Amino acid sequence: MANSETACQSGLILAVNAGSSSLKISLFRRRNSDAKPVQPDHVVELLLVSSITQISSSPALFSFSLASHTQGREVKKESVDNINDHASAFSHFLDYLKTEASIERSEIVHVCHRVVHGGDYFEPVIINSESYHHIKILSDLAPLHNGAALSVIKGCIDALPHANSIAYFDTSFHRSIPLHIASYAINPDVAKKRGLKKYGFHGLSYAYILGAVSHYLQQDASTLNLIVTHLGSGASICAIRAGRSLDTSMGLTPLSGLPGATRSGAVDPSLIFHYTNRAGRITHDPSQAVDVRVTQAEEILNTQSGWRALTGTADFAEVVKNAGWAGEGRWRLAFELLVDRISGFVGQYSVRLEGRVDALVFAGGIGEKSVELREAVVKQTACLGFELDEAANRTANEKDGPVVDVGKSKDQRRVLVCRTDEQLEMAKECALADKFWQ
Ligand SMILES: Nc1ncnc2c1ncn2[C@@H]1O[C@H](COP(=O)(O)OP(=O)(O)O)[C@@H](O)[C@H]1O
Ligand SMILES: CC(=O)OP(=O)(O)O
Ligand SMILES: [Mg+2]
């Protein structure tokens, strides 16, 4: 563990979020632990944010802005041709760090990495050969994610050799899902031997949202029942009972549940054998940092499906733009299909929560930005008591703060939008973990 006096005094935490199609990076300074934070988020101070989107469909879009300039000034945005994977995206960011922010790499003490699949690891772990191997073994169960995270971890170890790389797992938040909900109706011996159960993902996002909503409503997290949607390139939904995950729509892998940009979501498991007669063939992707072995079935359902397969674009904003009644049927179909699947889960989770739902929360790029999607889902689930304030829904994007109320009711069954922040969640956890700062 790197632990030099200078490094600890400066206390910089870099938080890196390798999503399926993006790399989001934030740099924080850990605040002096003697100063009592007013809000939980204040244990760290944001210095800069950067994101690289459309990583797999060139050109990638790079953005970089210093926190002091996030109100619209000095945000650098550019298309970059030579970014074609997460490793090259990270290396492009590191070049900017010195030239645009004058930050020396040696000032970074810890690098927090979002790792989607942690299997039976629940606590954050410092990367060493054992934990690296554990994450690598799980790559087959998160083919769009774990390999990408490992490629960034490798890049970090090379470029920031004095810093600790610490893995934070999406799966940790869902350890509370009861056995009968996490289990599949298959041979229990095989399930146990091979770890075949529901793990659930987007957990760092759900943990952040729970904290932010609890702060916003001034209600202890342990008293909250929420239905939270995280709708981005990967989309999922989570039922939170008394502040803990009760159920979520993704499963053994991030493929199940809701459809995503390139993912089918839940389908009849037999469908794939009627789609192709090569479903079981193993493919190796040489561009991946680690050897990820996936079948053609997984390849088709993970990368050749979702709204890109339905409409030709992975950008849901474009789907929404073209989905008006005058638009072509395929755009409308993609939009209605997603609304239908989300609404189905909202109904199911309302039953799980025995009707006691404090709020329905929209998050992730689509949940946070699509006025139309929120409108359609709330309309479809109105029988459960959800109702939008249309003006508040339309102007939600303009409001400050991580949580915006877009519902009619201010006492029960609220409808909220939360700007989720997985990087901030990791940095907070890191700053508060004394063991990393001794
Ligand atoms: N105004 C918008 N309306 C609908 N969807 C949007 C809008 N803006 C962005 N999006 C969607 O949000 C997605 C990105 O969400 P995000 O949560 O950042 O994704 P990621 O899974 O890469 O972390 C984009 O791919 C795009 O489809
Ligand atoms: C788990 C998952 O699908 O993550 P993302 O949405 O970042 O791809
Ligand atoms: Mg994401």
Automatic annotation (TrEMBL):
The positions annotated as site (Transition state stabilizer) read 202, 263
Q: What InterPro entries does the record tag this protein with?
A: Ac/propionate_kinase, Aliphatic_acid_kin_short-chain, Aliphatic_acid_kinase_CS, ATPase_NBD
Which residues are involved in binding ATP?
Answer: 24, 230-234
- Positions of the catalytic residues: 170
In which residues is substrate bound?
Answer: 114
Q: What keywords is this UniProt entry annotated with?
A: ATP-binding, Kinase, Magnesium, Metal-binding, Nucleotide-binding, Transferase
Record pathway? Metabolic intermediate biosynthesis; acetyl-CoA biosynthesis; acetyl-CoA from acetate: step 1/2
Q: Which biological process terms from the Gene Ontology are attached to this UniProt entry?
A: acetate metabolic process; acetyl-CoA biosynthetic process
- Known EC number(s)? 2.7.2.1
The record, for Pfam families, names: Acetate_kinase
Family per record: Belongs to the acetokinase family.
Q: What is this protein called?
A: Probable acetate kinase
Which species is listed as the source?
A: Wolfiporia cocos (strain MD-104) (Brown rot fungus)
